[in-house]
């Protein structure tokens, strides 16, 4: 038998960066970075069907509404769709005064010329030039040595300078990306950036944006952070550059890399909403922004109606936002499992009684309401659920706050249905079982025919009513708090139904003109069986009598 070679021998570990005195691990992010959305460029170039003008315009308007102040609107030299859309933005005055649009181009004269022409006349804009600098691209894609690669960068900068001079009415900003930075020698990336800076002569007042892409994510995010810190520490004239991050997600850590990159000294983050982009996508701007938000840092981006954002993004990209995507996914605030539901339900109750500003609910790192999500969908019921789950659903749906022991009593019925159906139970399913188990809609054996109550001269409550069974009527009356025991005594003495009352709870239900009351009573029959009765009526007293009769009806079956 021949031994198969371990296929992992094809790969090598990524080399460490020599930075023994790295500072980033002990830093925290205390303010929002500058954000750039590249949805309309890096996102768009990765789509099966790239967006047309209608979708691009819709996406652009969304980005403006969210609060993006820098938006890469396309790659104008790619073709007429891109060019016309960008020109259209400028010519129709659609770009708000506080928003900078950006375009991307290779470092080629004809493409750079077209790029400037697409934006000419805008009050202010960024032109972004890139060329790949890492060994594999140098060898395989360009077949060039380092000096010639540096020359592509430098030459690109000259084209930028010269084309900018053609359109002096626009205030031009420049961005340079040593593409494939993450897999390049950092010193060589610095060399290329320096060459570009020598041509463009940035100043602290008019800095260049140096964008350091993890074009292909090739190592753990700490390595990227080391690369960024090393770059920031060794770049001459650092104060004349805005250091920008552009991470991809090949190893699934694009967001982590961007966060560590900010700790390592970067000022700006490029990415896409919900992480669209080449292959596994770009860094997700929603996640990075809301990660900051949950640390008490205002990201300056508005996701308070996240479902509207998702709707537009899904429409424009023609790709779904996965149900488990951080912050936005359909299921990320939903607990199906019993112990999670129990903890969340308790967390909401504790949050309500604390009534302070701080959010602190188990299993929910962010208040779903901050993103426009309702609490109703937080807990959903299936066969993995516990009593906290359906109790929450009944409370949200019907306003009924079932006592704990009644939840346990009802639980087995819900569990049986969930097992039988083998699917999630909707609020309507749970309410149907509830009505069936507690016979809410069935013809009642013991009926409340009449009820009246008032106050005696000394202020004590007095009540009198009539219970009917098969045409027979029996009066019940009493005073004080003995209502439940008076009804229980009448049931026992007049109808032979012996019930020992174990538990009794009541609460107000609804408010204003809908105000009612709910009451729940737990009884034990002569044979030791446990029965629960539920009463819902206009006032607590009537609801209580109904609860007691409901228990008697269950016992009488
Ligand atoms: C990491 C990124 O996402 S970078 C952005 C990538 N986005 C896009 O490419 C989308 C838009 N691009 C396009 O529509 C087209 O590529 C165009 C119109 C820009 C150019 O098309 P073409 O002229 O056919 O060239 P093509 O795309 O095949 O590029 C390959 C050539 O450009 C050269 N090239 C690639 N990148 C660069 C660069 N940054 N600067 C200069 N030359 C470059 C290659 O070496 C190759 O040259 P060769 O033909 O002499 O071998
Ligand atoms: C052009 C650069 C910024 C890029 O998209 C990448 O490297 O992923």
TrEMBL record:
Primary location group: cytoplasm
Region of interest: Regulatory domain: 441-557
A Gene Ontology BP annotation from the UniProt entry: L-leucine biosynthetic process
Residues annotated to bind Mg(2+): 42, 246, 248, 282
TM annotation in the entry: none
Reaction equations catalysed: 3-methyl-2-oxobutanoate + acetyl-CoA + H2O = (2S)-2-isopropylmalate + CoA + H(+)
Top-rank EC class of the record's enzyme: transferase
GO cellular component: cytoplasm
Transferase among keywords: yes
Assigned EC number: 2.3.3.13
One Pfam family named in its UniProt record: HMGL-like
Location relative to the cell: Cytoplasm
One Gene Ontology term of the molecular function aspect: magnesium ion binding
Domain Pyruvate carboxyltransferase: from-to ranges: 33-307
Pathway: Amino-acid biosynthesis; L-leucine biosynthesis; L-leucine from 3-methyl-2-oxobutanoate: step 1/4
Keywords of the record: Acyltransferase, Amino-acid biosynthesis, Branched-chain amino acid biosynthesis, Cytoplasm, Leucine biosynthesis, Magnesium, Metal-binding, Transferase
Cofactors: Mg(2+)
SMART domains to which the protein is assigned, alphabetical: LeuA_dimer
Homology family: Belongs to the alpha-IPM synthase/homocitrate synthase family. LeuA type 2 subfamily.
Function (record text): Catalyzes the condensation of the acetyl group of acetyl-CoA with 3-methyl-2-oxobutanoate (2-ketoisovalerate) to form 3-carboxy-3-hydroxy-4-methylpentanoate (2-isopropylmalate).
HAMAP family: LeuA_type2 (MF_00572)
Subunit structure comment from the entry: Homodimer.
Name of the protein described by the UniProt record: 2-isopropylmalate synthase
Gene transcribed to yield this protein: leuA
């Amino acid at each position: 038998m021949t031994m198969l070679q371990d296929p992992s021998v094809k790969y090598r570990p990524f080399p460490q960066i020599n930075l023994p005195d790295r500072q980033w691990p002990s830093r925290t992010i205390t303010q929002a970075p500058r954000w750039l959305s590249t949805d309309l460029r890096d996102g768009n170039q990765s789509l099966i069907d790239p967006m047309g003008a209608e979708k691009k315009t819709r996406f652009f308007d969304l980005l403006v509404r969210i609060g993006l102040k820098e938006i890469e609107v396309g790659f104008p030299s790619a073709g007429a769709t891109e060019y016309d859309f960008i020109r259209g933005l400028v010519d129709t005055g659609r770009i708000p005064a506080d928003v900078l649009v950006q375009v991307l181009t290779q470092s080629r004269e004809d493409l750079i010329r077209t790029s400037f022409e697409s934006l000419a006349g805008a009050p202010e804009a960024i032109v972004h030039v890139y060329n790949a600098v890492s060994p594999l691209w140098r060898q395989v894609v360009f077949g060039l040595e380092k000096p010639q690669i540096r020359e592509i960068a430098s030459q690109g900068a000259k084209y930028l300078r010269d084309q900018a001079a053609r359109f002096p009415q626009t205030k031009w900003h420049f961005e340079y990306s040593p593409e494939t930075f993450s897999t390049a020698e950092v010193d060589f990336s610095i060399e290329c950036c320096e060459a570009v800076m020598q041509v463009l002569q940035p100043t602290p007042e008019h800095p260049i944006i140096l964008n350091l892409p993890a074009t292909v994510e090739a190592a753990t995010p700490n390595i990227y952070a080391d690369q960024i810190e090393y770059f920031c520490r060794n770049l001459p004239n650092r104060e004349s550059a805005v250091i920008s991050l552009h991470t991809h997600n090949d190893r699934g850590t694009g967001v982590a890399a961007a966060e560590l990159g900010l700790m390592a000294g970067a000022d700006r983050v490029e990415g896409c909403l919900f992480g669209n982009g080449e292959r596994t996508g770009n860094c997700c701007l929603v996640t990075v922004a809301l990660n900051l938000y949950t640390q008490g840092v205002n990201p300056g981006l508005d996701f308070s109606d996240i479902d509207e954002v998702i709707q537009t993004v899904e429409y424009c990209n023609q790709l779904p936002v996965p149900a488990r995507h951080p912050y936005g996914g359909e299921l990320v605030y939903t607990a199906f499992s019993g112990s999670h539901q129990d903890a969340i339900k308790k967390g909401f109750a504790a949050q309500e009684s604390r009534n302070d500003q701080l959010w602190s609910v188990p299993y929910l790192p962010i208040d779903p309401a901050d993103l426009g999500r309702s609490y109703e969908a937080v807990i959903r019921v299936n066969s993995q659920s516990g009593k906290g789950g359906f109790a929450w659903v009944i409370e949200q749906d019907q306003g009924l706050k079932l006592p704990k022991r009644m939840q346990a009593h009802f639980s087995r019925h819900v569990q049986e249905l969930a097992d039988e159906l083998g699917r999630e139970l909707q609020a309507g399913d749970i309410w149907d079982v509830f009505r069936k188990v507690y016979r809410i809609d069935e013809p009642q054996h013991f009926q409340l025919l009449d009820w009246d109550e008032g106050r005696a001269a000394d202020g004590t409550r007095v009540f009198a009513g009539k219970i009917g069974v098969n045409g027979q009527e029996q009066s019940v009356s009493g005073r004080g708090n003995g209502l439940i025991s008076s009804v229980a005594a009448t049931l026992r003495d007049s109808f032979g139904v012996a019930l020992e009352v174990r538990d009794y709870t009541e609460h107000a239900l609804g408010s204003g003109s809908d105000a009612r009351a709910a009451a729940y009573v737990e009884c034990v029959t002569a044979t030791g069986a446990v029965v629960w009765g539920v009463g819902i009526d206009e006032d607590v007293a009537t609801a209580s009598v109904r609860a007691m009769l409901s228990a008697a009806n269950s016992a009488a079956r």
